[in-house]
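sanity check this:
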Amino acid sequence: MAAIQADSLSPIVDLADHPPQYINPDAPVLSSLMLYIVRVPGSQDLFLTTLHPLQSTVTAEDVNACLYYIHVEPVVNTSSISPSTLSPPLPRPPSHRRWSSQSITRSRHPSRSPARPIPTMTIVRRDPATGAQWNVARISSPSNAEEDMQRILVDIMTAGYQQFVEPTVDPDELVSIGFRREMWMEGAGFWSRVKNIGHKRGRSTSTSSDPREKESAAATPVGEKMKKRGYVFDALWSPGKGEERGRCGFKDEAGGKFLKCKYYPPTRSSKSSLLSVLEFKPPSTTVLSAAPGREAPEVITSSKSKLGMLVCHSDGLYMMDLLVAANMAVFWKRWESWALERSALGGR
């Protein structure tokens, strides 16, 4: 499949800025968008690009041509580092020199507990044709409590998503309203999902104030039963005004090599649709030792620049910022599990 050139991404950027409010069955079928997932050597940052990356080198030009940049805040030991060091600067492209990921030092690291919250990540969307960029999403963990380790919060800052925010009855909370989706592992405990979701801040979340609706949301997607546990979240839109939202769910394929995200409509009469396919390139190198002040070994440790691919299909492009954020969250969790397994085995 030929790479999509930067000047042809402008319509996709415009669609990401203005997602449709409802599903339109007559909407044109868009060509799938293939994005390579590439690591920034020397950091845990990632970027998504339509250009095929080189085997082990990344240049500033590669970063400038990306569609999305994912800045990962390091997991730090707050007891040994002052609060002023906990907020790193905004992500910047690497300096104009060629990087070689082979130069990263590696060493063994003792095993760690698999119960770890996802780090905070900022997703920046860029328009390669103009160089403009915007912070469009934030991925975070609700808390460090053990019952929250598998839950993921996705906040979308794109202005076009404000139309999906549920109104609040408290005028004092107007400034804190934002679009939010919670991702949880299908089959996880009910109360571990609904605890501290964000109702206190008046945000749009994937749960409801009605217990019966919460129980319904915890059920397997209607119309197509999911055989394996996977992350799920409420879809961006409903089939029409006043109708229930559908559900988006991730499912392993080909023994875990691929992860498909599908949209499940709220009624049995409609079929699910494929939103995206995430392909992994599993790590094959030693786990890095933890940097000073870190609580755990770094997750992204592959010596190769290309870590996988994300293919966004037509329906997924109509909710691209949310879909990319959700995919990068589960991408990170999968790589984290590999890093922990390799660390437990001595890093080889």
In short: Helices lie at 10-17, 60-64, 190-194, 211-217, 314-317, 320-344. Residues 4 and 50 are 6 Å apart (CA to CA).
